[in-house]
Write a structure and sequence with these properties.
The chain has about 160 residues and is α/β, with parallel strands linked by helices. It is about 35% helix and about 20% strand. Strand 2 (about 20-25) and strand 3 form a beta hairpin.
């Protein structure tokens, strides 16, 4: 059985800014990448590398996601332009189809980036990677420091 559904979303952080693509599990683990462009050919490899085929994906109605089903992913959308933000499809009172998890993440990311005005496009991927790491580790203070050190020690080649 596939893992919990993911929400995929390509988003501009503002006018003149590079597009950023994000995927988040309902368990809140996130992957974000800066893109050269917002095209299906650009997002397809990211989706295939990150999400197990057969995993349901929920997005907005943006046409960049129109081929998800042909790539092997059940796909449902919410129609924001019609005022739809969540939908209960099986009548159990729980809105299964929504992209609110990713929307909430974008809000956190924008709030975190706001004080760092003037980030160059060359360095933006580093900021995004750090925020992704901090978000996924879910620790703060010394816990975050120890998690970061553990990753750095694992990735550091051993001296001979």
């Amino acid at each position: 059985m596939p893992p919990p559904a993911r929400c995929a979303w390509a988003r501009h952080l503002g006018d003149g800014k590079p597009p950023v693509f994000g995927m988040i599990q309902r368990t809140r683990e996130v992957v974000i990448r800066m893109l050269d462009n917002v095209q299906q050919a650009t997002i397809k490899p990211l989706i295939l590398q990150t999400i197990m085929p057969g995993t349901p994906i929920y997005t907005d109605e943006y046409n960049i996601y129109s081929r998800l089903e042909s790539w092997g992913y059940p796909h449902k959308t919410v129609n924001h332009s019609a005022g739809e933000y969540a939908r209960d499809e099986d009548g159990d009172g729980f809105c299964e189809v929504h992209s609110n998890t990713m929307e909430g993440f974008w809000s956190l990311l924008r709030s975190w980036l706001r004080p760092h005005r003037g980030i160059s496009q060359a360095k933006l991927p580093l900021y995004l990677s750090f925020f992704e790491f901090v978000h996924n580790v879910r620790k703060r203070g010394k816990g975050l420091l120890f998690s970061l050190l553990a990753v750095l020690v694992k990735k550091t080649p051993k001296a001979i």
